[in-house]
Write a structure and sequence with these properties.
globular, 8 strands, binds magnesium ion, binds adenosine-5'-diphosphate, disordered C terminus, Rossmann fold, alpha/beta
């Protein structure tokens, strides 16, 4: 059965592993297949926000994720519809201050969870995807506490395993202290380069260590993916026929399928 309101955080404390690329492309691909999606940008760099809204697009509201973390009542006003079935809860650089300002606040790690789950807000969507910054600070913690599961993008590069081990132990600690239901949805191998022996070794090592937790889809390194942000677009819209776009559509199907929204559910 399809699970409505599934909250999935995309996390890895390493920067540049394709968290934002995955969040934006997956959100668009899921919405293109008829699912209702909300993308929450928890990164002060706000790359997911510009990936969905473009630059300098007039906004209907000035409220952002920062206002929601300060006061959950701002949620409805802050969410912006971007395309049919795809909404964003945007970030801007104000979010840099949130980490410090919330440090002494009550329930500081549960702010997002309270906002999304009160009045069943997340049930309006099939998927709520959370993009996180490259650190394990309070913003990422809010993501992990709010989520049902975590997708871990892993770049097919040297040191990949190190970051992965440390995130897996963070997930275990979050589960113990704040969110017992948190699951590892899966590990997504990104920027795979078939000509590169190291890429192949990383895939082999991650698959042998984490088995079925690794998504079957592997995202190839593809220049169209890296070009698309300079046009403030995601590759699934910038060049839908590129290998990167195809892989992200395939990944979105796999993710939806794991959550009961597969081809046989009539939704995709
Ligand atoms: P993170 O959010 O983890 O810091 P990004 O999604 O911003 O990582 O990606 C880091 C950089 O790698 C960006 O410049 C992005 O365009 C590029 N990139 C991501 N995925 C691919 C890919 N499959 N092929 C080529 N470049 C990629
Ligand atoms: Mg990012």
């Amino acid at each position: 059965m399809a699970l409505a309101g599934r909250v999935i955080v995309i996390a890895n404390q390493k920067g540049g592993v394709a968290k934002t690329t995955t969040a934006v492309n997956c959100a668009i691909a899921l919405s293109q297949s008829g699912l209702r999606v909300l993308l929450v940008d928890l990164d002060p760099q706000a790359n997911a926000t510009s990936g969905l809204l473009g630059w300098n697009v007039p906004r209907t509201s000035n409220k952002t994720i920062y206002d929601v973390l300060c006061d959950p009542d701002n949620l409805n006003e802050a969410v912006i519809e971007t395309r049919s079935g795809l909404a964003v809860l945007p970030a801007d650089q104000d979010l840099v201050g949130a980490e410090l300002e919330l440090a002494s606040a009550l329930q500081r790690e549960s702010r997002l969870r309270i906002a999304l789950r009160s009045s069943l807000f997340c049930e309006k969507f099939d998927f709520v995807l959370l993009d996180t910054p490259p650190s394990l600070g309070l913003l990422t913690l809010n993501g992990l506490v709010a989520a049902d599961s975590v997708v871990i993008p892993v770049q097919c590069e040297y040191y990949a395993m190190e970051g992965l081990r440390s995130l897996v132990s963070t997930v275990a600690r979050v589960r113990e202290r704040f969110n017992p239901a948190l699951q590892i949805e899966g590990i997504l191998l990104t920027m795979f380069d078939g000509r590169n022996r190291l890429s192949q070794d990383v895939v082999g090592e991650v698959r042998s260590r984490f088995g079925h937790k690794v998504f079957e889809t592997v995202i190839p390194r593809n220049v169209r993916v890296s070009e698309s942000p300079s046009h403030a677009m995601a590759v699934v819209e910038y060049d839908p026929r590129s290998s990167g776009a195809e892989a992200y559509r395939q990944f979105a199907l796999e993710l939806a399928g794991r959550n009961g929204n597969g081809p046989n559910s009539g939704l995709c």
